[in-house]
Specification:
The protein folds into 2 domains: about 100 residues, Formyl transferase, N-terminal domain (Rossmann fold), CATH 3.40.50; about 90 residues, Formyl transferase, N-terminal domain (Rossmann fold). The model has no long low-confidence stretch (mean pLDDT about 95). It has about 220 residues and is of the alpha/beta class. The strands form 2 sheets. A 7-stranded mixed sheet has the order 3-2-1-4-5-6-7, with helices on one face. The protein is globular and about 60 Å long. The protein contains 6 helices and 9 strands. About 30% of the residues lie in helices and about 25% in strands. It starts with a strand and ends in an 18-residue tail after the last strand. Helix 1 packs parallel to helix 6 and helix 5 crosses helix 6. The chain binds glycinamide ribonucleotide. Glycinamide ribonucleotide binds next to helix 1, strand 5 and helix 6.
Length: about 220
């Protein structure tokens, strides 16, 4: 059997994205495995999910460190000790410094609950509603030195509905996150993801999405 890509998952919260990655990694033939789960917050539900699945997990609390770089140095050590090849940010609410970027060049991916480049940063579902956007969605991208600015691997679009609150929109987006994050990991693990500047190419190509979406619809 060919080697599976070793993932290091970083999380801060409930860990529903972690859970779908755990589930995919348990499927026969999925080309990745989780080497370690690290949370920066001792109460993160992600730690409990990892324990339940028998996956090595630990808390590295950012509050125990003098600054972002010292925290990232501890993360790098733990990830390297676990033999991690791809770092997967799954609801990880800390800004990554050059310490991590230099240790894992083009080997850190993030999922963001908006259609980048619209609405980087925090509270983005509320931002999309307040702006009056008709669509939002989610984005998996490589992490670079900016906030949610790296090359885009895959996106899903969801409509913003008139009655939406930040919570209902977040739930609709999360459903799509759970589809696109495992897919991005699969493509990377298969060696099909090539990056040139900002452009990510899938090789051999995955079928493109060629249908336009209109919201509100053109009917009645
Ligand atoms: C997800 O919606 C993810 O996109 C978002 O946090 C949530 C985590 O949910 N990440 C960010 O906002 C990163 N800036 P989860 O813990 O259930 O996977």
């Amino acid at each position: 059997m060919t080697q599976r890509l070793r993932l290091g998952i970083l999380a801060s919260g409930g860990g529903s994205n972690l859970q779908v990655i755990i589930d995919h990694c348990q499927e026969h033939g999925f080309p990745a495995e989780i080497a370690v789960v690290i949370a920066n917050n001792p109460d993160a539900g992600a730690l409990e999910r990892a324990h339940r699945a028998g996956i090595p997990a630990r808390c590295i609390n950012h509050r125990d460190f003098a600054g972002r770089e010292a925290f990232d140095t501890a993360l790098v050590t733990a990830l390297q000790e676990a033999g991690v090849q791809l770092v997967v940010l799954a609801g990880f609410m800390r800004i990554i410094t050059k310490v991590m970027l230099e240790a894992f060049p083009q080997r850190i991916i993030n999922i963001h609950p908006a259609l980048l480049p619209a609405f980087p940063g925090l509270h983005v579902q509320q931002q999309a509603i307040d702006y009056g956007a008709r669509f939002s969605g989610c984005t998996v991208h490589f992490v670079d030195g900016g906030v949610d600015t790296g090359p885009i691997i895959i996106q899903a679009v969801v409509p913003v509905l008139p009655e939406d609150t930040a919570d209902t929109l977040a739930a609709r987006i999360l459903e799509q996150e759970h589809k696109i994050y495992p897919r991005a990991i699969q493509l990377i693990a298969q060696g099909r993801v090539l990056v040139e500047g900002r452009t990510v190419t899938i090789d051999p190509p995955a079928a493109p999405q060629a249908t336009a979406l209109v919201n509100p619809s053109l009917k009645n």
